[in-house]
Write a structure and sequence with these properties.
Distance between the termini: 104 Å
Structural class: alpha+beta
CATH superfamily: Gcn5-related N-acetyltransferase (GNAT)
Radius of gyration: 32 Å
Mean pLDDT: 83
Number of helices: 5
CATH architecture: 3-Layer(aba) Sandwich
Helix content: 25-40%
Strand content: 15-25%
Order of helices and strands: HEHHEEEHEHEE
Largest sheet: 7 strands, mixed
CATH topology: Aminopeptidase
Number of strands: 7
Number of domains: 1
Amino acid sequence: MARPHFAISHAHFDPFRHYQTGFNQGFQCIARTMRPLKPAVTAIKMEIIRTNSSNQDFKKICNQLDKELNARYGHEQAIYDEHNIIEENKTVIVGYINEIPMAIGCFKQLDKDIIEIKRMYVSTLQRKKGFALKILSELEKWAKELGYSTAVLETGKKQPEAISLYKKANYEVTDNYGPYVGIENSVCMKKIML
């Protein structure tokens, strides 16, 4: 009995092409199932304490604030220095990250219903992380606990990031008050605390 004869055409068979096609299809299948790895995000927490102006960490961060203001405003800052002196203030906040002081803020009474926000500052290493809003919110909370209904503050035209922060917290630009009347670089703001 004669063996069956199978004719194999080599004209259209390219083993490398078939191997490459299979490899590409397999790679595409794997690629579709893979997702880019997301880096682990560790939330940085800030511990906030209520204290007073004798707190050494508060004084330390105040010095950082004064250096930055002097760098921005130069000799013009001398006009404001006398209004930034904090003496015997009992409503001071310090924010700590890993037990290191990184942010401050305080307020003082202007009227029976009005407080003035002062000495708001976050270390350059910890900015744009929401800590300034957290400090401001805690100051407002404390003020409302003490019966105040309105907060005012003063910042400068060369501090656009501060102006943006306060607007985000629903402060509105108002007429310059008290010692800032007539000072062109001053931007005064106000908020009714609900």
